[in-house]
Amino acid sequence: MARDDKRELLLQATLELVATHGFHGAPCAAIAEQAGVAAGTIYRYFESKDVLIVELYAELEGRITTALMSGYKANQPIRDRFLHLAIGILKYFITHSLEFKYIEQFHNSPYGTAHRRDNLLGNTESSDAVRKCDIYKQLFTEGLELQVIKNLPMPLLFDLAFGPIVSVARNHILGFIRLDDALIEQIAEACWDSLKR
Amino acid sequence: MARDDKRELLLQATLELVATHGFHGAPCAAIAEQAGVAAGTIYRYFESKDVLIVELYAELEGRITTALMSGYKANQPIRDRFLHLAIGILKYFITHSLEFKYIEQFHNSPYGTAHRRDNLLGNTESSDAVRKCDIYKQLFTEGLELQVIKNLPMPLLFDLAFGPIVSVARNHILGFIRLDDALIEQIAEACWDSLKR
Amino acid sequence: MARDDKRELLLQATLELVATHGFHGAPCAAIAEQAGVAAGTIYRYFESKDVLIVELYAELEGRITTALMSGYKANQPIRDRFLHLAIGILKYFITHSLEFKYIEQFHNSPYGTAHRRDNLLGNTESSDAVRKCDIYKQLFTEGLELQVIKNLPMPLLFDLAFGPIVSVARNHILGFIRLDDALIEQIAEACWDSLKR
Amino acid sequence: MARDDKRELLLQATLELVATHGFHGAPCAAIAEQAGVAAGTIYRYFESKDVLIVELYAELEGRITTALMSGYKANQPIRDRFLHLAIGILKYFITHSLEFKYIEQFHNSPYGTAHRRDNLLGNTESSDAVRKCDIYKQLFTEGLELQVIKNLPMPLLFDLAFGPIVSVARNHILGFIRLDDALIEQIAEACWDSLKR
DNA sequence: TATGAATGAGGCTTCATTCAT
DNA sequence: AATGAATGAAGCCTCATTCAT
Questions:
Q1: Residue among D159, D183, D196 minimizing CB distance to C167
Q2: What is the mean pLDDT of residues B89-94?
Q3: Structural domains of chain B sorted by starting position, each given as residue range(s) with its CATH number in brackets
Q4: pTM of the prediction?
Q5: Which residue lies nearest E10, CA-to-C1' measured?
Q6: Is the minimum distance from the CB of A86 to strand E below 7 Å?
Q7: Per residue, what are the HEC states of B67-108?
């Protein structure tokens, strides 16, 4: 078995266990078993469990960015571009529910807290995640200049745009609602309504 | 010391420790110390740590509902009532940051998952939380009938309304932005924009 | 059972296991079992296994100092005082072979290395061990002034005095020789011969 | 690369790692890395890590004996021969500090204990170490017959002669003193003083 | 009622050794 | 002969919970 395979098996096992049972339900022994390797093998691929957790998070952020980038056309109208991104991220979340759950677990955990602190202190090289934010940031900046979106601080624009998306994705994944393409588009448009001037 | 005092001390200690250090940083011994009681005493007031965690959550939901109820006038226009609630909940969160952090920790944890499962299965008697939801539900139902808010499933209306609020509160509490009354009102109005037809 | 009893049981168990099987043969589980307590109990009395190891060493040094002090008369001739100390320490070692073995294990271990480093850096408050050294130091200083012992740097005087004592004690304890009072006295006198001018 | 080269590299790597970091700091992986070979290769040259450790010890004893033999003249006076050996071994130790440290580590370890037990039980063929002892033994025997050294059991004579040497070497290597040729000679003479009648 | 010492299961990690390549 | 990935037993430590006082 190639080296990358086992690394991938471990990441996948971690994704599944953490997404379904939380960090609490993902001890090293369980991760290893789920991946079909011995416990000690984890440490050939990751310095520690913490590193495994964080690297998986980075990996997932990378995947999302890649997904969002595809089909994004910088020369379209702002509204269209926003809808493309909002619909794209929502669809990504609901078709990759394990990843969504993992990311949510991560954000509300000591790992996520440390991650935010590192970001604040600039302890990380520009990652894919940052680039993803940059697309939005650029979009919002452009919208502000053209006076098509509300004159609010950047973080609040993120909150208005992302807050409902995340919340909707969670409700779908938990089974409280069942989204279809029409609903997804309506949600995205409602988000735009909250942003546009 | 009256019986309820110690119970209250334990709840408060749990709130503080979980909010600031996460569940990970709130072992029973630390909770007891923070409350100024012995570790064993926890079990005279709560069946288990899990029960303590869940009861605190219920208690906090109750407090929020009480706060939102005050000043709520059912005979005002829908938009005004919505803004009252949105502004109220946002202000409550940022002035009770420990409670907000606790609730966020709770939602993303095995406790929160179980809690949601119980709600789905109807394993809980109608709680304050349910009553709080009822206010919104009633408001949204009325808005749907009057055709002033978008024709979307109820859970999605919740997401559009609450999603940004929670996200904004988090950013404020984490220090990424600093809200003032004007901003709070703008946020609430933006949420209304996403709801209204 | 009084608090100090269990602490004492743990120290004694550690002494026995380390002396007879080395640090390698004294895992926490074995120490706890030997002491008749659960493994977790160790951590109610000692911050970590390392601390247990180091505190036991300090305790043993204290006992030796106490033993040597008894009967020591500062107004006797230097030679008599030296013989008193040399005989005393040798007798102590061979009647407390576990303690002797433990101390030897300790010195040749990461613990002992760190301990020496701390002493060099002055990271420790003056301990009993230091006071014990002080008796010798004072004795040697006096001997140097009176020109009855060889004019050598202080550490070398220690080596000449202690080196054989430790070596003899080891051979006795390992069973290569069997000391009696007459031999002990001869050894002490031989050490004096190497010191005296 | 010739077979013996890798064996030698492994022995040297073990010497360096154990001397500087103790057995605790010399896992097989580190030894292999230091030697520039793969971990599994160790087992083509040594049955187990334990065997590697013990064979290195035997090797080092052999080197010391060889060094001491050189220039030793059996027809010199006893005192001169003793001084030659004492000075020789002390100089060897302080110019081969890694070897000295390794030997000290070895003596105070499960390996050393087992080694001594084997010696007692006669489980080993006569090794270089034994031959080294023989020189001393012969020297002491002769001294006893001529009544120039104290009438003490053989092991005690070893202790009086070697005890200070080892102790002095340790203090030099640890940096507590700095020996020069004059001091070394004084030390050797002091040792003789403790032996001579 | 309250205490807090004691428990022991279970978590993360290391490392000597094996074996397919 | 050599490699080094994989193994899994064993080590240290934490913590929810119990129970004698």
A1: D159
A2: 97
A3: 1-46 (1.10.10.60), 56-195 (1.10.357.10)
A4: 0.90
A5: A27
A6: no
A7: HHHCCCCCCCCHHHHHHHHHHHHHHHHHHCHHHHHHHHHHHC
